[in-house]
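Recap quiz, item 2
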Amino acid sequence: MTASRVLATSSLLLALAACGSPGKYIETGGTDSIVSVGEVDIQDLQTAASGMLESLVAQGVLSTAPHQPARLRIERVVNDTSSAFDVGELTYRMREQLVNSGQATVLTAYGADAESPEAQERLKQEAFRQGQTTVDSLQPDFFLTGKITQLKRSAGSTKQVTYTFRLTLTDSRTGQEAWTKVVDVTKQGTKNAVGY
Amino acid sequence: MTRRSIAPRLAVLLAASTAASLLLGGCGTVNTTSTREAPSTDSVPARTRVNDLFTEIFLHVRDVRMFPAKSGVMQAQIDVANDGFETRGFSYLITWLDARGNSIESPMSTWKTARVAAGGSITISSVAPGPEATDFSIQVRRAS
């Protein structure tokens, strides 16, 4: 092999190595995102949160609460899918909109698994000093619960999965369901892809 | 084999492939009609501009409506029709604007996808994040 041939082959190899896609920032959940057929992606969570919020805001359920903004307690939202993700990715997106727009306030110092036990303890001490047995500001108007499930099917090498996000608001005064919403996200394909 | 003997075979082959194409084209085609003939009372004049956007991805907009939802916040609906012979997919992002024309940032504003069967139509919709939203803008991208 001549020196020029070796040089040409080396140049070609180097050029090929440089062809890989370099790291870059993309819009979170945007159309350049990766679409995974068998996993819940960030855009799926964004779609679910958006669908839930649109329904909740359109129905105006929160404005029926005795307290304004409505006091909301986020209870268990179960991830019953094979995809590992934190359900907080869904609920925090909803909280952001509801709390920041003044439609609801989330009670973070309520219950046995309070997000802020310090605040809960301080409120309890204050109530005790005032001779009260309960802390009125910690009484929720609504409880938010939910479940995320999946339905997987395949035909040949084509896989299809439907992720069903369901949330329910229960009125604490009546114990009855005040609002419920189901958002389905269905994906189909033989392999994961970049962009949609 | 002479040219004369090839011609009939070629004609049969052409006819067969045309029929197959027509049959395949017919698969999944939706025929649509409606009892309503008058435009919706909630139609807004932006239909032409929104339609221009969708025409670029070979779809067309039949109607754009805006009306208050049960809670009083605005809701937008866009009827998108596919007059082509194949299912078309697209992504869209609706951003709500306040009375001064400023966009309202919200987790409700996300890219969503939709598919319209050949000959069919769908309605995409969006609910405003709050009462301050009075108008909206839409971005559309053909699905990859």
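Chain A touches chain B through 26 residues (CB under 8 Å).
The helical segments of chain A are 3-17, 42-59, 88-100, 117-129.
End of item.
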